[in-house]
């Protein structure tokens, strides 16, 4: 085809794409449905003008449309990676992990069940071989992300429902395409009845190979992109290449699923990108991919719809019965999974509850689209597939897709409304009324100041003020007469708003480079945990998430074990430095929250709720300060180095702001501004480097701060530093049990523990020790020791402790004091001189 005609068709399609969005909004129909209808009309019109004898003037245009080089590989290799990759970048993975079980059930189990259900139903109702029937089942089993996501995002549906639908639509393409590849091979080889077990046995290999390929490709791409941090366009260009290289590499080199590779690459970049790439570059990367995905989604729909008239050529009356079989079998299989398997998984406590209205909406929201048409087109293009199989694949897949788009897609909004999923809860409705009343009061104050500033006409001001006052009075009365919100609900809503504001503050700080890119992901994760904890369990959930944000995790304890047992200190050094920086970032963010509580929260929820939130915030501040102080005591001087680094980053940000303001005011030219910014960029790169943490040196400094070791010489301190091992424990962890063998003495570097001996409890803090009495006097009553705060313990084995005891008078005095406190004769513990 002439290149000019191709460009003309493409340009015309972009005009259609631009007109489709306002048309969809005017008709209140899903955007994807409008695109499909327009594509069908264009394709049908082209066929009509070619066949009609009314005029030949439009024949060149019609021939260009029908002869447009649309092949299945264009959909699968060009458009599909773009859609899948952008969808993964835009996903909130932390929130989606809460529903990973229902998402995986719908994305994998439902696809396999639908493939088998449709396949065996068609084998019973038609003369097609089983392999061909299963191939059709695989083709129609995938819900299309470009069809489903756009519809649910345009509806006032609950966010959780949208997340489940989006997660399913994103991941089930991989499962369906993998099954499609398996059964396509059987059809092309002419095997009448495939061995289903051997076919499905290859399925995990395709999934695992694709996931590994995508992960490796993303890690390499992130490494390259981090090298291009100062060159934003180069960084974004690498991200554009990533999904296509992952797809092609997985399909052609590994022989695995390219779709899974793209999804894995996108998920990896989603998780690691914010912490490795500059904040502004990451934001712009997301915007670029949003535009690419918008174009790809629209083109894939409209180009696929152009094929529908050709795919339906030669349709027979009996084919409509087979389309009905596909519809019934597909819906029945989906209903069995949603209303049979998922409640069973919930009963077995494997899956969170998915409410019945949600499941009904998911059932009706399983739309098919361009992916189904592209797979059907791939079959019709193959020369090795029997003609009758190609004909029925094209007709059944197209007919089922049209049913889901034109019937389900156009009625989905009504179904959501009928299920009551587009309405706020009574609490949210009451809260919305109160928010309106508070907002209007603020607006009235601002408008009054505006009128004074601009000296407007009194009559105009008076008339408009009266109209606005009437509206304000109605809003206030409506809020007062609305559903009475209990304090418990107000607290929950206030905590959700507070955690949301904290997340927004973190994003601002990351953008300003006050919080480093390294800490961006972890701080945002902690904020999301606070939101989810408050949403699910109110105050207790919020407090639990707050404690978890400062606790020592499993990874930290594993790093401590590697350092203590094998001398591998690098993981512990990195995690300790991360913990320092994380706590400093949390402290910085928490200081901005009290203003939000005093302002917004107090005006909406009242003084009692605001005071309670301030109390909860103060407890969080204490948690963070305690954890930070513990690290300061354990690693003196390092926190100060990080704080100096923070000050340097802040001064650079302020310096950049001044240069930008001077450039905008015309005080400096472009050449001077560019030179200044280049120098600023180099200094910023130096400021981003985190100071090194030497655990061995820090431990020696820490030992000197223990009064117990005050009389040791330098050589003894060095020997002790090598002998001591570090152990990190969370609040609530049992350090020693009464019946466990005691082989070590513990020194508290930071934190606190509680001892229980014969029903009596006591507490020890920094610089104290425990375990020494039981070691020196085996007949002494044993204690159970539990950490009551995140604590760092220095551990010394029995032999070295006894040797140290003979050399340290201060340590002997401490042992005598602890013995007297427990009513034990000190002379029975220490050897006589």
TrEMBL record:
TM spans (from-to): 6-24, 31-50, 70-89, 101-122, 128-149, 170-190, 196-217, 253-273, 285-308, 320-348, 360-380, 392-416
Organism: Sulfitobacter guttiformis
Membrane protein topology class: Multi-pass membrane protein
Coiled-coil positions: none
Pfam families: cNMP_binding (PF00027), Na_H_Exchanger (PF00999)
InterPro entries the record matches: Cation/H_exchanger_CPA1 (IPR018422), Cation/H_exchanger_TM (IPR006153), cNMP-bd_dom (IPR000595), cNMP-bd_dom_sf (IPR018490), RmlC-like_jellyroll (IPR014710)
UniProt-annotated location(s): Cell membrane
GO molecular function: potassium:proton antiporter activity; sodium:proton antiporter activity
GO CC term (a single one): plasma membrane
Domain of life from the UniProt record: Bacteria
Span of domain Cyclic nucleotide-binding: 708-805
Annotated protein name in UniProt: Sodium/proton antiporter (CPA1 family)
High-level lineage: Bacteria, Pseudomonadati, Pseudomonadota, Alphaproteobacteria, Rhodobacterales
Main location: membrane
Sorted UniProt keywords: Cell membrane, Ion transport, Membrane, Sodium, Sodium transport, Transmembrane, Transmembrane helix, Transport
CDD domains xrefs: CAP_ED
Gene Ontology biological process terms from the UniProt entry: regulation of intracellular pH; sodium ion import across plasma membrane
């Amino acid at each position: 085809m002439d290149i000019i005609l191709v460009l003309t068709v493409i340009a015309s399609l972009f005009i259609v794409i631009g007109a489709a969005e306002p048309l969809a909004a005017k008709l209140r129909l899903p955007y994807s449905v409008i695109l499909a209808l327009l594509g069908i009309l264009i394709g049908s019109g082209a066929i009509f003008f070619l066949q009609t004898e009314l005029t030949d003037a439009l024949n060149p245009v019609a021939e260009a449309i029908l002869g447009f080089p649309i092949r299945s590989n264009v959909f699968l290799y060009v458009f599909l990676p773009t859609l899948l990759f952008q969808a993964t970048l835009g996903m909130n993975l932390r929130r989606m992990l809460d529903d990973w079980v229902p998402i995986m059930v719908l994305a994998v189990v439902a696809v396999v069940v639908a493939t088998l259900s449709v396949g065996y139903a068609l084998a019973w109702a038609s003369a097609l071989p089983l392999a061909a029937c299963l191939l059709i089942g695989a083709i129609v089993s995938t819900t299309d992300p470009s069809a489903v996501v756009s519809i649910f995002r345009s509806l006032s549906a609950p966010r959780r429902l949208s997340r489940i639908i989006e997660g399913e639509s994103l991941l089930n393409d991989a499962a369906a395409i993998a099954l499609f590849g398996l059964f396509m091979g059987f059809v092309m080889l002419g095997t009448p009845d495939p061995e289903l077990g051997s076919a499905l046995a290859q399925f995990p290999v395709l999934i695992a190979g694709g996931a590994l390929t995508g992960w490796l490709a993303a890690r390499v791409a992130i490494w390259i992109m981090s090298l291009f941090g100062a060159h934003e366009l180069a960084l974004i260009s690498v991200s554009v290449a990533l999904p296509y290289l992952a797809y092609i590499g997985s399909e052609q080199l590994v022989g695995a699923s390219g779709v899974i590779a793209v999804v894995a690459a996108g998920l990896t970049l989603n998780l690691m990108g914010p912490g490795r790439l500059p904040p502004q570059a990451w934001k712009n990367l997301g915007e670029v991919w949003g535009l690419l995905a918008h174009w790809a989604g629209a083109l894939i729909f409209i180009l696929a719809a152009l094929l529908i008239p050709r795919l339906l050529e030669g349709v027979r009356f009996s084919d409509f019965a087979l389309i009905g079989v596909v519809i019934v079998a597909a819906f029945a299989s989906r209903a069995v999974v949603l209303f049979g398997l998922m409640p069973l998984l919930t009963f077995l406590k494997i899956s969170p509850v998915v409410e019945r209205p949600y499941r009904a909406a998911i059932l009706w929201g399983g739309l098919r689209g361009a992916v189904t048409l592209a797979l059907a087109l791939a079959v019709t293009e193959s020369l090795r597939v029997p003609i009758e199989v190609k004909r029925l694949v094209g007709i059944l897949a197209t007919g089922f897709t049209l049913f889901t788009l034109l019937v389900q897609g156009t009625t989905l909004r009504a179904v959501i409304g009928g299920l009551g999923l587009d309405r706020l809860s009574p609490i949210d409705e009451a809260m919305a009324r109160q928010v309106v009343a508070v907002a209007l009061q603020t607006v009235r104050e601002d408008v009054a100041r505006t009128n004074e500033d601009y000296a407007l006409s009194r009559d105009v001001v008076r008339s408009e003020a009266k109209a606005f006052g009437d509206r304000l009075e109605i809003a206030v009365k409506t809020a007062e007469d609305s559903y009475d919100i209990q304090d418990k609900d107000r607290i929950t809503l206030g905590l959700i708003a507070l955690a949301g504001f904290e997340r927004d503050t973190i994003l601002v700080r990351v953008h300003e480079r006050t919080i480093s890119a390294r800490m961006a992901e972890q701080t945002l994760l902690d904020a999301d945990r606070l939101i989810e904890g408050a949403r699910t369990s109110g105050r207790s959930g919020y407090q639990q998430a707050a404690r978890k944000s400062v606790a020592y995790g499993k990874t930290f304890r594993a790093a401590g074990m590697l350092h203590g047992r094998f001398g591998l200190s690098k993981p512990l050094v990195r995690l300790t430095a991360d913990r320092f920086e994380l706590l400093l970032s949390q402290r910085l963010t928490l200081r901005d929250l009290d203003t939000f509580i005093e302002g917004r929260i107090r005006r909406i929820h009242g003084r009692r709720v605001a005071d309670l939130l301030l109390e909860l915030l103060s407890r969080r501040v204490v948690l963070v300060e305690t954890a930070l102080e513990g690290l300061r005591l354990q690693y003196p001087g390092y926190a100060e180095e990080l704080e100096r680094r923070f000050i340097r980053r802040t001064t650079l940000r302020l310096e950049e702001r001044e240069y930008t303001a001077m450039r905008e005011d015309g005080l400096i030219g472009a050449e001077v501004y560019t030179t200044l910014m280049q120098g600023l960029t180099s200094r910023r790169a130096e400021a981003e480097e985190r100071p090194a943490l030497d655990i061995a040196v820090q431990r020696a400094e820490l030992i000197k701060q223990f009064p117990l070791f005050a009389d040791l010489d330098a050589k003894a301190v060095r020997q002790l530093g090598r002998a001591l091992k570090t152990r990190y424990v969370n609040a609530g962890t049992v350090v020693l049990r009464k019946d466990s063998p005691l082989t070590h003495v513990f020194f508290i570097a930071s934190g606190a523990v509680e001892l229980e001996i014969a029903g009596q409890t006591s507490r020890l803090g920094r610089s104290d020790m425990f375990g020494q009495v039981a070691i020196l006097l085996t007949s002494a009553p044993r204690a159970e020791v539990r950490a009551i705060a995140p604590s760092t313990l220095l551990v010394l084995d029995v032999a070295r402790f006894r040797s140290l005891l003979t050399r340290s008078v201060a340590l002997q005095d401490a042992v005598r004091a602890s013995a007297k406190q427990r009513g034990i004769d000190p002379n029975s513990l220490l050897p006589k001189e």
